[in-house]
Write a structure and sequence with these properties.
heterotrimer; A alpha/beta (427); B mainly alpha (280); C mainly alpha (346); B: mainly alpha; MetI-like fold; C: 346 residues; mainly alpha; 2 strands; 2% strand; disordered N terminus
């Protein structure tokens, strides 16, 4: 946004060429020649980048007015912060990946270009193939602002070798006799930790900071971070207190989960189980241990599933917004969507079949795909998201810190969380 | 110095010094040895002082994952340019503030000193916009111009001024007798005397530029333009988890050469700092 | 001029390029004391001698002065003052980056500053951090300098060791310490070997702050140590000898001789360390991210969160102004106090 430039321009008349504007973006006049495009992403996985470059090359064959298409990986840690800083500095990319937890902020900000028309009009796009539940988060007032190119359910990867070593039943067996519940899972992990000295269950990316990943656990108790409409704090609800009490006990008393400040990487063979998105399966390429992928355990309130999403949007600020939107349509058309499905489960109903997915997810068996992926996407609840996400998330994180100690008073800490965030939720 | 020290006290002193050394040496030791261990061994418990499985692969990976050699060169040339530039600018300004009486100099000096008080986080956003407006983002220009002319250079000017103030008043007279103008006095008489202070400035400035972290992150987006501190944090796996052994290998390669240079030239380092005139 | 031993900058004594030399010499030899002598009065558009006397020595001197100062001054204007002004300007606005709105809200951000419940904790943490850092840093630097000032062999080796972290890259140093301070990291491993159980350094409210302080101190203490060492070596040993003859004990000698004589250095390192402490950012970002809770969220980190993470750029700018004011005040206070604390300020 160039609004801030007015005073600078006055002061630096000769130097700055930015012009003030009052809130509606003005795209710079299009320059001549092929236009480059830049898309910010958070993966630097070589296989992913290769695929993207292939798709881009394909696109450029028929579009000589498109210059280089650059896929710009930003570190995942601070992805949203870095992206926003770029925007603040007037250096917004043309397209960007968006995390589900910042979706409400971006979608409601007016910074993104509405995509409906472009997508509907793209040839062979089959816009209606997109599952309503998948696109819900990315719409505002009936218009689609970002395309949910990846809907990735959470599942549990299990190191069957470690389980065997500790004399535990495998998940497959437990699912069969209906004992695949959090209570039993925690007990198993405690046993493994005790017997083998390796860690038990790792909620990946949580690390006692990324609390939104805990929704994969508390979902089993029917707890929520906040109400559906986002107005009421859910941390002090009885369900949440129960869920967190269970978690606290499992960490500090039973040692089923590794404690704060301890590092254990499932994919390196150091943990018995891990809750993470199925896209991580590629990390098991060279795994030296036997493993399985199963759905999340059931909680006292029964079975449930949690999904994470990633959206792809176009910025109004971009000088080539129209071109970028067109590329987005190409990038996510049925053909390319199927290719991307190798790593990013698509929102297209027709492609959410075990067979299609199996073709591009060679490491996962059809049974796993059906159970975890398809079932997950259909029934799944998206990870916590809200407007003002960054500040809200940090406040919750700071308020939850006292919980991660032995002997913490769960109820009091959770009450404290709500006290801090309720004022922010009202908005 | 003092008279001879009794043996008991000497042993005690040596003992204390050795113990104090540990927190200074241990991290560097740990950094180097961990870079030679496979990842799983790094967090092994109990920790081993030396790798069990010597694994040099991390070093290879450093170069494969990033254009590390280029990044090294970036950091190096930027630091050298900034050091040379700062030495020039600071010497000139320091001399003028110290030895020439011109109207408004005190006010101007205070204005310049303001730069010492402002953290870079405060000015980074407006500076970014300025450079973006000039089309100079994703280039090294902001990393060169701002340190030389802006806030980081002010400490150098301050040091130079302190030094020049401490020179005897007869200096200019003697120069005048030799027929030198003011500028000549500066260039031919004062400057050569300022070697120790310039040495200190060079050291401070080089280290500061070498270690810049926030600025490269904000201004640069192409990996081949990155500088070392920035590159260090980029060694993450596909999902953002740090690749510990690779990061430490890169960190070792960043730290060790400077350390070696320091060990070899440390007398000059230390003497340069000692002569900044800061003591008086 | 010749009689003065202090370092007053000389004025008016340099030879002019044009034909004023004789006049100069005349003025000097009468001991005019460096003031712009009578005959030197500048004539604009001179008549006498057909030469332009606009450029008197004084003016020429001034010109050189301005020229020499120009690069630094221009840089300060462009890269320090202008951004500062812009930041002040931003602080008067509500700037939502994503929505692209930039509304003038006058003093609203400042009201918010005063009402900010978090601010008390942040300022408290900042004070604790700065005080802890300065005390530990200067104290340790002085101790190390004294230890190395003894007649021992191998002080050069130790000096190198203590100075080495200064030259290691900050990010590298912090990353290594992040490893070491993990609950299952190197430090606790070392302690375990010695039979002790180390706490979870980066996760305990008190230990997190301590860890950040210690990591920063170890990184920079070598610099202050070298400065103190130089200062200590500048203290004439006769003073100590004389004091001993008078029966003064080691502690008295330290307090009465050493401290006063190195007080200029103490003052300067104190100013630099205090200002530096208020700018410590990378270490906190890497080690604790301001946590646990907000115990290590110092002002500059809080500013970063508000501006860069929460996208409240206007409020972040307001915090920047606050930070600047605090730094300026502390520096002015310390500088003023120098008359009281520093011995023999020239």
């Amino acid at each position: 946004m160039r609004t801030f430039a007015k005073p600078a321009a006055v002061a630096l008349a000769a130097l700055l060429t930015l012009t003030a504007c009052g809130g509606g973006g003005e795209a710079a006049p299009a320059a001549q020649g092929p236009q480059p495009l830049r898309m910010t992403i958070w993966t630097s996985n070589e296989a992913h980048l290769k695929l993207f470059d292939e798709i881009a090359a394909e696109y450029r064959k028929t579009r000589p007015d498109v210059g280089e298409i650059k896929f710009d990986p930003l570190p995942f840690d601070n992805y949203t912060t870095t992206l926003t800083t770029q925007i603040a500095g007037g250096n917004a990319p043309d397209l960007a990946w968006i995390l589900e937890n910042s979706a409400p902020d971006f979608v409601s900000s007016g910074a993104l270009v509405p995509l409906d028309d472009t997508l509907r009009e793209a040839e062979g796009y089959e816009f209606d193939d997109l599952t309503p539940s998948a696109v819900k988060l990315w719409q505002a007032e009936g218009r689609l602002y970002a395309y949910p190119f990846s809907t990735s359910p959470f599942g549990v990867f299990v190191n069957t070798d470690l389980l065997e070593k500790a004399g535990q039943k495998t998940p497959a067996e437990m699912i069969e006799d209906g004992t695949w519940t959090w209570e039993k899972v925690a007990a198993q992990n405690a046993a493994v930790a005790a017997e083998t000295g390796k860690a038990g269950m790792v909620v990946r990316d949580f690390d006692y900071k990324g609390w939104d990943n805990l929704s994969t656990v508390w979902g089993g108790w029917g707890a929520q971070a906040w109400s559906e409409d986002g107005r009421t704090c859910g941390f002090d609800s009885p369900e949440m207190v129960e869920a967190m009490t269970f978690l606290h006990k499992s960490i500090f008393t039973d040692k089923a989960f590794p404690g704060p400040g301890t590092t254990a990487d499932f994919f390196a063979g150091d943990a018995a189980m891990t809750v993470t998105q199925i896209s991580r399966a590629s990390l098991l390429q060279d795994a030296k241990f036997g493993w399985d992928l199963v759905p999340l355990p059931a909680g006292p309130k029964g079975e449930y599933s949690v999904i994470g999403q990633a959206g792809l949007g176009v910025f109004k600020q971009s000088a080539n917004a129209e071109l970028a939107a067109d590329f987005l349509a190409f990038f996510t058309n049925p053909g390319n969507s199927a290719k991307l499905a190798a790593y990013f489960p698509p929102p297209r109903a027709s492609q959410l079949t075990a067979d299609t997915l199996a073709k591009s997810n060679p490491l996962l068996k059809p049974g796993q795909l059906q159970e975890v992926v398809i079932g997950g996407i259909e029934k799944g609840v998206v990870k916590p998201n809200h407007t003002g996400q960054a500040e809200l998330s940090q406040t919750v994180r700071a308020a939850l810190d006292p919980l991660w100690r032995p002997g913490a008073d769960v109820k009091a800490v959770l009450g404290g969380v709500c006290a801090k965030i309720q004022p922010m939720l009202g908005a | 110095m003092r008279r001879e020290i009794p043996v008991r006290l000497k042993t005690l002193l040596y003992g204390v010094l050795c113990v104090l050394c540990v927190p200074f040496v241990f991290p560097t030791w740990w950094m180097v040895t961990s870079s030679l261990k496979p990842v799983s061994e790094i967090f092994a418990f109990p920790p081993r002082p030396l790798p069990v499985d010597w694994d040099l692969s991390a070093y290879g990976q450093v170069f494969r994952l990033q254009p590390f050699a280029g990044q090294y060169l970036n950091s190096l040339y930027i630091a050298l340019v900034v050091t040379a530039g700062t030495m020039a600018v600071a010497a000139m300004a320091g001399y003028a503030f110290a030895r020439i009486r011109f109207p408004g100099q005190n006010v101007l000096f205070v204005v310049v000193l303001l730069g010492l008080l402002i953290p870079s986080e405060v000015t980074i956003v407006p500076l970014f916009q300025m450079f973006h407006g000039l089309g100079l983002t994703d280039t090294h220009w902001p990393l060169i111009l701002v340190p030389i002319l802006g806030a980081p250079g002010v400490l150098a000017t301050f040091i130079m001024r302190q030094f020049f103030v401490s020179l005897p008043g007869e200096l200019e007279e003697a120069a005048r007798v030799d027929g030198l103008g003011r500028f000549g006095t500066f260039y031919r008489v004062a400057l050569p005397l300022a070697r120790p202070a310039l040495g200190a400035v060079a050291i401070f400035t080089f280290l500061h530029s070498w270690n810049l972290y926030l600025e490269p992150i904000v201004y640069l987006s192409s990996p081949e333009k990155f500088t070392l501190p920035q590159a260090l944090t980029q060694f993450v796996d596909a999902y953002g988890g740090p690749m510990w052994n690779v990061q430490l290998a890169a960190a070792s390669m960043t730290a060790l050469p400077v350390l070696v240079v320091f060990v070899l030239a440390q007398r000059q380092f230390v003497e340069g700092l000692a002569h900044t005139g800061l003591k008086g | 001029m010749t009689g003065r031993a202090d370092a007053r900058p000389l004025t008016g004594g340099r030879p002019a390029r044009s034909g004023d030399r004789a006049a100069d010499r005349a003025a000097e030899s009468t001991g005019a004391g460096g003031r712009a002598p009578g005959p030197q009065r500048a004539h604009r558009f001179s008549g006498g001698g057909g030469e332009q006397v606009f450029w008197t020595m004084r003016r020429r001197d001034n010109l050189v002065g301005y020229l020499l100062v120009t690069p630094q001054l221009l840089g300060s204007l462009l890269f320090v003052l202008l951004p500062l002004g812009l930041v002040l300007w931003y602080s008067l606005h509500e700037w939502n980056v994503l929505a692209g709105t930039f509304e003038f809200v006058g003093g609203e951000n400042y009201d918010r500053l005063l009402a900010d419940a978090n601010l008390r904790e942040v300022l408290g943490g900042t004070a604790l951090f700065s005080v802890g850092l300065v005390v530990l840093n200067l104290g340790l630097a002085l101790v190390l300098a004294i230890l190395l000032n003894q007649r021992l062999r191998g002080t050069t080796f130790f000096r190198t060791v203590f100075f080495s972290p200064v030259v290691v890259s900050l990010v590298a140093w912090t990353i290594v310490w992040r490893f070491l301070l993990q609950d299952d990291g190197g430090l606790n491993g070392l302690l375990a070997v010695a039979g002790a159980e180390g706490p979870n350094w980066l996760r305990g409210e008190g230990t997190a702050m301590l860890s950040v302080i210690v990591v920063q101190v170890l990184k920079n203490v070598g610099l202050n140590m070298v400065l103190f060492l130089a200062a200590l070596q500048g203290v004439p040993s006769q003073l100590y000898e004389a004091a001993e003859l008078d029966g003064a004990g080691a502690w008295t000698r330290f307090l009465r001789i050493t401290v006063p004589l190195i007080s200029p250095t103490i003052l300067l390192t104190s100013i630099i360390t205090v200002v530096g402490s208020l700018q410590v950012f990378a270490q906190i970002a890497v080690l604790t991210q301001g946590g646990p809770g907000m115990s290590t969220t110092v002002l500059v980190y809080y500013l970063y969160q508000q501006a860069f993470q929460f996208h409240h750029f206007g409020y972040g700018a307001t915090l920047s102004v606050l930070l600047f004011v605090i730094v300026a005040l502390l520096t002015i206070v310390q500088w003023r106090m120098r008359r009281r604390w520093v011995f023999n300020e020239t």
